[in-house]
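FAQ: What does the model actually see?

It sees only this:
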Amino acid sequence: EDPLKPQPLKLPALYPSLPFLLLLLSLFSSSFAAFVGSFNLPSIQARQVNKPLTSLKMSGGRVVLWFRNDLRLTDNVLIAEASKRFLASNSALSVLPVYCFDPRFFAQSQYGPRKTGVLRAKFLLESVADLKKRLQGVGSDLLVLSGKPEVIIPRLMQSGEDTTVLAQEEVTDEELRVDRAVKRAIAPLGGKLHLLWGHTLFHRDDLPYRQGLTDMPDVFTPFKEACERKSKVRKCFPYPVKGNLGVVPEDAKKLDEGLPSLESLGFSAQEVEGAAKPDPRSVLQFVGGESAGLDRIQHYIWKQDCLKDYFETRNGMIGADYSSKFSAWLAHGCISPRFIYEEVQRYESQRVKNKSTYWLIFELIWRDFFRYICMKHGNEVFKIGGIAHRSWKWEGEGEAFQRWVDGETGQPLVDANMRELKYTGFMSNRGRQNVASFLTQNLNVDWRLGAAYFEETLLDHDVTANWGNWMFAAGLSGGRINKFNILKQSKDYDEDGEYCRLWCPELRNVPVVKVHSPWQMSEKEQLDCNVKIVSYSELRDKMSANVQLYPKPVSEKNPGRYFDDGQPGRVPSRRQAEVGKRWDKTADRWMGKKNRSSNSKRQDYMDSHM
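And it is asked to produce this:
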């Protein structure tokens, strides 16, 4: 049965008469509404309601709730389905929530970096710990185990007992391979894997496209407009009522291994020590878990009332509240896009409805777009030619890529953003667009190296949003190719150089007229600012110990591409035209004015991290 379809509530004969119940309910509802209304700040917890659940003819058996990147109780289709089955079995069903720390997702990727870095691993551990605590709060528990799910989940099954494994459906290859492995492992034991859709704002079945998404456009704007016209956002699932998931059996509890340490996940003592000391320059001290995610929503939308100004402030780079910062909790499933949508609707009805409130929903639709692009195109998203199948030749790992990773390109805006990412796991939307453009369009480095590095370091890494965004940044979506003028962007979005100086302290004494282009300083100016602009080799050798060192700009590549036939200059005319329109380094002039056109679609292609 469809878990989203409302079902009738069947009352046993021992219940009081229905009119009497309705009378009590009306009295309680009015009193409760008055109580809630007495507060100035709407509480997001007030919407935890008991919703009628369907009845299934079941008795006994087990349901394994396999959590992955859906680490929440609020608006969780798995929780709703498990509760429904438990109540339908007259409490005879055993519900076993489980999280598996799969070693494959902490191993080295084929591109070099780990698939999960230490900062995101810490956030994940906090999220799993919070999920366990919240499950215990409703009378259940979470079994935390380390190992491959296809090995662990069969251990939770009992011979002769029907077992259904519930999990949220994924769309990308590595996750799908794990799904297939679990399905094969439990089949001989009589187990079944039941996958449910739950990651998106718009449900897959409500999209205005054919099954398989063959008619879905590969461009965002028509996708957004079609969804807004023809699709509706489904209501959130209720927070589980205490007891509706039953009690985890004692035989299963004995298998619980508890949270692993960061060291046991493969991180060095130095990495663990660094993760334990948050950088004071970080925009936010991120803490994983549904509780922290709900607190962030309460803070940003209601307490600080930031939502009304979101559109105007979202391109900032310093501070906690220039943007929502919901992305890390969304990526781990600690909060759902539908819950944010309902909070925005409530804000619009109680405070204000404007372009800013719409724009937050706009960002959620971007997240949907990339997930459905990955669903439509599969592994093409991860191939070097992208979904456009373009045969450009890229540079591999080398000095240029390493300088980009280390934040030593000699371009202050790029370096500041890359250092912020390295030390905090976060980077602003504006920063992501610029560093991705610089790596792919200026340095001609294989975009997949950038995507893999982001996968390791980002707190808010979501496989579909990250790899989809990088493919678009590399110009491999089949649409417009965007190349950012880094110097102009730096002057536009960090007008006084405060951000560049924050993360590049070598430049702390450089005046605003040169902080965006320190290579233009004379030797006397460098001396006055106690900084020396040096070659990369000299920077590596640390030859000048008595003065701050900052590198000269890395050598940039020709914006053209060499095709596989080896003939230089064969660049598609549209690409050449687009690059020409957006890039004229010598003609760039700083007039002291900000260029933040609200009509520019170009600036928003990488917005889905919020």
